[in-house]
Write a structure and sequence with these properties.
heterodimer; A: mainly beta; 7-stranded mixed beta sheet; 4-stranded antiparallel beta sheet; B: 6-stranded mixed beta sheet; globular
């Protein structure tokens, strides 16, 4: 299985500011995803982080609000921009890869509170 | 577009009892996943079901997949308190590039 780390693990931010979340995997993976889990809710996919090209966003999520980078096969960042209290959620990165073609694993998550 | 529905959403059961969580999905799903989430924690992968009739078991949990009925089940045998958690099923389609669509989750509480 892949070992995934995320930084920060939690943060409290003021509205109007931005936060960048990092996702690091211990092996090269093909696919990386970013999900959001609002309080008491299920998970919703934000975007697929593509290595070497722009991320693919799901309906309802836009690049200006959630810019994503993926400079290589083991690392990605998600920025939550111009935050509002509605952005308070857990943000999780997820991976699947050539060594584990069907398994999808999740990082520990970043718990964001916007005041 | 794939839609995934779970029921029940909340389940309170006694230790030692058996129960089943149901996961229905709307269109063809190439793989069906089950995850466990403890409060304040991330998701732990339980099972990946790849084909019709697939059955996987781990301890007191058994998952199955019926692609014709578009139904997966997670059966709990002789529940224990440690199984208290939220359980999610998720489907994916090859055409969607392995993106997961999650059900609403089933919050399971096992009472002594």
């Amino acid at each position: 299985s892949a070992v995934i780390s995320q930084k920060p693990s939690r943060d409290i931010c003021q509205r109007g500011t931005s936060l960048t979340i990092q996702c690091q995997v211990d092996s090269q993976v093909t696919m990386m995803f970013w999900y959001r889990q609002q309080p008491g809710q299920s998970l919703t996919l934000i975007a697929t982080a593509n290595q070497g090209s722009e991320a693919t966003y799901e309906s309802g999520f836009v690049i200006d609000k959630f810019p994503i980078s993926r400079p290589n096969l083991t690392f990605s960042t998600l920025t939550v921009s111009n935050m509002s209290p509605e952005d308070s959620s857990i943000y999780l990165c997820s991976v699947t890869g050539t060594g584990l073609p069907y398994e999808q694993y999740f990082g520990p998550g970043t718990r964001l509170t916007v005041t | 577009e794939l839609k995934v529905e779970q029921n029940p959403l909340f389940l309170s059961m006694q230790e030692g009892k058996n129960y089943t969580i149901y996961c229905n999905y709307s269109t063809t799903s190439d793989r069906l996943y089950w995850y466990r989430q403890d409060p304040g924690k991330s998701l732990e992968s339980l099972f990946v079901l790849l084909s019709n009739g697939a059955v996987k078991q781990e301890g007191r949990l058994m998952a199955s997949l019926d692609t014709k009925a578009r139904l997966s089940t997670l059966h709990i045998t002789a529940a224990v308190h440690d199984l208290s958690a939220t359980y999610f099923c998720a489907g994916t389609q090859e055409t969607s590039g392995s993106r997961l669509t999650f059900g609403e989750g089933t919050q399971l509480t096992v009472n002594p």
